[in-house]
User: Which sequence fits this backbone?
């Protein structure tokens, strides 16, 4: 008994700061093994890659907080990217591209939210279906071989830096701040946590739990579309598979960051720390000269480690 | 059969049991009672081999035993039925009964025919007609409980322990269960029966042992015991102090529900609630009481009827509208419908009234904390402050969190569904006093209760429901057990 009593604080520390310790350890070890890892250039590069994932993670956290899951985010990203090149590729098209992409993202989120709340279908099935549907429509539209150019302004936002700070990172920071403030300082945010914490109770204390849930999916869809536009500017070429894997990466990041899959617990900042770990791991594999396949293997190991730390959280 | 002497058990920071004794004979049903925290669960776990005692001895079936695992206790013939059943919903009744003791046949594969036949034999021995091929998920809760008991019979049970078995069943199901337990007793099985419901204990048990604060208080024969004496042994004070005095002058009608119908559950029920009065809604579980209250509050859709409050009439209600009009509802299911278990006390208190802790949508955390601090003091909620998690609190204190929440928003009517379920006797008295205070402050209190003593002891007026219909309205001296039972079980009495 005395043994467990002594263990308790250590375990608490691990649970509260586990993610920070893991991130610090990863950075430390990689930096020792490969000094180039901490070069300004490489850091800038990592931040550039982190932003689109981070933006998707914000939406994913909002969805998981209301006991959901959004698998359609990557498909929305790719669709938005295809839209980005549909017009003439001039800066004058930037605004219509933005509007069309956002409408697709928001509409997808709305369909997800309505089916989940009004028809009571599981989030997994609904978002798997919209993911597939969007993918099919995208393929039909591009006939498998998308072409065209991204408006230059998106290239700037997606891949340029301002005194070493990527523009897309600034967008991420602004969005993360706005949504964190919404979650923690407003009644909207409180309703998100109450809805996720106990949906039946939420309804009985007068919260429109369905609306709150739908809002999470709509926001997730919108943010995914925005991330898709920014990512298309980062990649530069058009691709049917922009953002491939982001649906699982964003869920993994959220869970590693302490967002409970059972809903009602977690923060955006936590999710972003999770995303940072993924980006550092991917980058470390390259910097250490390991084969690219190691990215996937190490990702698996990191997920298991995170799961082991958080498993007794609830 | 079982003799426990001088057993003590400590957990870090808590002395759960201190030098307790318990003696249970073969062929008796022995009640174990005490408030929450009295040490009943800890002793159960020690008997079941989950915990080891720090001191003291356990003698079972004539031998001093030192079980080091639940399996060892089970093998010796001890079976515990916990409040939460340990059944696999997607396996059949027969598979559940023989789980871990599968009937083997050819090549050591499972012999489904024999599994089925043996299960049928056991169920017949219990005198219940449950299809051994049915999935457990398809059974009623009462039948699931019978499957749990059948599992005990597989192991030639000598000592059966039931922890609050009637918390999940009601009415004639309870009678059925008691019949089975008496039959097992007559077969020579020793039974330890843990319950908060004293009527049941007098009805069923032969002897009773009372624990208080981890200590042994007394073991007595129930035939020589009165209800009042048992309660005073448990709480250390008199029964008459349990209920506050009734109201003499009820105020005006504040809510009128007319011909409310809820699909399949409530048929054209009408009632009036008065300020300053505690009105009880009595009747059997399943009579439609919860559904009627939910319809008034907007938690369930009404298919007919109307609710009048504050000079307005509504044919459609929603919880947010009801809250706006000054109605509050404490559900019977605290965990599932009442509280966000993983969040803190302050968040749970403010949940129904976010407007009071915010300005133009911006939360005022300081104000929220102030409110929580004052409500914690107001209702004497035992917790680790506003940031304490509700998950780890006792049933009585969780209930007080809900009272604090709803007393803040309920300006006219507060509906409390089974307000003392799973709450120990001491906290019950406190909740009764709070309910009377709320009525004295001018609220109309509607209490749904299955416990006869609290209906009779607390309510100023009683409606009785049966199969979705209100069958009687009783007041004053009419509020008596026989009148209520008559209205609850027979066709229209009034």
Assistant:
């Amino acid at each position: 008994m005395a043994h467990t009593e002594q263990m308790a604080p250590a375990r608490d520390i691990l649970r509260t700061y586990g993610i920070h310790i893991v991130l610090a350890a990863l950075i430390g070890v990689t930096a020792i093994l490969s000094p180039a890892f901490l070069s300004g250039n490489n850091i800038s590069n990592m931040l550039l890659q982190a932003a689109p994932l981070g933006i998707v993670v914000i939406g994913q956290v909002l969805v998981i907080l209301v006991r959901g899951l959004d698998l359609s985010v990557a498909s929305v990203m790719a669709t938005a990217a295809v839209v980005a090149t549909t017009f003439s590729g001039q800066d004058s098209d930037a605004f219509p591209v933005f509007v069309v992409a956002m409408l697709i993202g928001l509409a997808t989120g709305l369909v997800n939210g309505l089916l989940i709340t009004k028809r009571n279908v599981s989030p997994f099935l609904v978002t798997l279906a919209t993911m597939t549907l969007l993918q099919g429509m995208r393929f039909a539209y591009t006939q498998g071989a998308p072409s065209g150019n991204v408006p230059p302004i998106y290239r700037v936002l997606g891949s340029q830096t301002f005194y070493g700070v990527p523009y897309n990172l600034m967008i991420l920071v602004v969005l993360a701040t706005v949504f964190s403030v919404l979650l923690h300082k407003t009644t909207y945010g409180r309703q998100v946590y109450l809805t996720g914490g106990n949906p039946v109770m939420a309804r009985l204390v007068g919260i429109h739990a369905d609306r709150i849930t739908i809002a999470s999916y709509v926001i997730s869809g919108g943010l995914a579309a925005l991330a898709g536009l920014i990512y298309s500017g980062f990649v530069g070429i058009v691709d049917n598979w922009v953002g491939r894997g982001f649906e699982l990466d964003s869920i993994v990041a959220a869970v590693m960051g302490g967002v409970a899959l059972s809903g009602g617990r977690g923060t955006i900042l936590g999710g972003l720390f999770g995303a940072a770990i993924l980006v550092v791991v991917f980058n470390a594999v390259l910097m250490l000269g390991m084969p690219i396949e190691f990215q996937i293997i190490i990702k698996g190991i990191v997920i298991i480690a995170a799961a082991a730390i958080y498993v007794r959280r609830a | 059969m079982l003799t426990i002497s001088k057993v003590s058990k400590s957990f870090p920071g808590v002395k759960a049991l201190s030098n307790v004794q318990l003696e249970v004979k073969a062929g008796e049903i022995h009640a174990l009672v005490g408030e929450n925290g009295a040490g009943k669960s800890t002793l159960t776990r020690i008997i079941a081999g989950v915990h080891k005692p720090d001191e003291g001895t356990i003698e079972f079936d004539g031998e001093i035993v030192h079980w080091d695992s639940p399996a060892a206790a089970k093998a010796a013939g001890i079976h515990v039925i916990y409040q939460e059943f340990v059944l696999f919903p997607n396996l059949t009744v027969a598979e559940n009964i023989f789980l871990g003791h599968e009937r083997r046949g050819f090549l050591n594969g499972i012999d489904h025919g024999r599994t089925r036949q043996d299960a049928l034999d056991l169920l017949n021995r219990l005198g219940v007609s449950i299809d051994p091929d049915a999935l457990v998920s398809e059974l009623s809760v009462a039948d699931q409980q019978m499957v749990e008991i059948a599992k005990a019979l597989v192991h030639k049970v000598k000592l059966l322990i039931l922890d609050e078995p009637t918390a999940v069943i009601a009415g004639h199901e309870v009678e059925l269960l008691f019949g089975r337990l008496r039959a097992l007793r007559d077969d020579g099985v020793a039974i330890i029966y843990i319950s908060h419901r004293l009527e049941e204990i007098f009805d069923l048990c032969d002897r009773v042992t009372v624990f208080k604060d981890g200590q042994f208080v007394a073991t007595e024969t129930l035939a020589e015991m009165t209800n009042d004496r048992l309660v005073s042994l448990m709480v250390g004070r008199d029964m008459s102090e349990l209920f506050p005095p009734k109201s003499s002058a009820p105020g005006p009608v504040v809510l009128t529900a007319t011909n409310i119908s809820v699909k399949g559950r409530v048929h054209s029920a009408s009632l009036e609630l008065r300020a300053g009065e505690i009105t009880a809604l009595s009747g059997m579980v399943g009579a439609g009481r919860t559904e009627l209250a939910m319809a008034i509050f907007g938690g369930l859709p009404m298919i007919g009827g109307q609710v009048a409050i504050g000079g307005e009439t509504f044919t459609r209600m929603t919880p947010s509208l009801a809250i706006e009009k000054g109605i509050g509802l404490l559900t019977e299911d605290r965990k599932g419908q009442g509280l966000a278990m993983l969040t803190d006390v302050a968040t749970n208190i403010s949940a129904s009234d976010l407007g009071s802790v915010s300005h133009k949508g911006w939360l005022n955390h300081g104000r929220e904390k102030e409110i929580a601090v004052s409500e914690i003091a107001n209702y004497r909620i035992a917790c680790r402050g506003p940031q304490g998690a509700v998950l780890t609190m006792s049933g009585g204190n969780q209930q007080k969190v809900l009272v604090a929440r709803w007393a803040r928003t309920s300006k006219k009517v507060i509906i409390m569904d089974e307000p003392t379920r799973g709450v120990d006797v001491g906290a019950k008295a406190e909740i009764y006093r709070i309910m009377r205070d709320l009525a004295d402050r001018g609220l109309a209190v509607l209490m749904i209760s299955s416990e006869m003593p609290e209906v009779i002891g607390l309510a100023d007026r009683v409606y009785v429901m049966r199969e979705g219909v209100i069958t009687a309205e009783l007041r004053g001296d009419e509020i008596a057990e026989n009148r209520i039972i008559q209205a609850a079980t027979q066709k229209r009495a009034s």
Confidence is low (pLDDT under 50) at residues 1-7 of chain A. Residues 39 and 251 of chain A are 29 Å apart (CA to CA).
